Amino acid sequence: MAWIFLAVAGALEVGFTTSLKYAEGFTKLWPSLIFVAAYAGSAWFLSLAIKGIPIGTAYAVWTGIGAVGTALVGIALFGEPATALRLLFLAVIVGGIVGLKLVSP
């Protein structure tokens, strides 16, 4: 169950970083409120995950999911470049996440 909590925490991290872009420096109400809710939810699910996963592993996976997810959202929604090298290095992060899952409880 801890790994499911961690995946949800990572997904919420993608949500709060994406809403941060839309909040435009917290000048837009709804994206700002979504940011706060997603941030709190992400931290809460991370706190649940670390009950069953070592903190170093959980934090690395959480930030990895957030980084890869946010980069993909940037490509899909904001027209950021999807160069071969960028995608390669995102794949390296995914490989690290998978590797940590394989060697962790």
**CA radius of gyration:** 14 Å
Biggest pleated-sheet summary:
none
Number of individual domains: 1
Fraction of residues in helix: over 70%
How far apart are the first and last residues' alpha carbons, in Å?
11 Å
What structural class is derived from the secondary structure elements? mainly alpha
Instruction: Figure out the total of helices.
Output: 4
Number of strands: 0
H-E string? HHHH
Shape: flat
The averaged pLDDT comes out at: 97
Low-confidence blocks of residues: none
Task: Determine the strand fraction and express it as a percent band.
Answer: under 5%
In short, what is this structure?
The protein is mainly alpha-helical and 105 residues long.
Describe this structure in words.
The protein has about 100 residues and is mainly alpha-helical. About 85% of the residues lie in helices and about 0% in strands. It is built from four helices and no strands. The model has no long low-confidence stretch (mean pLDDT about 95).
Structure characteristics:
mainly alpha; 105 residues; 0% strand
List the helices and strands and how they pair.
Elements: H1 2-23, H2 29-49, H3 55-78, H4 84-103
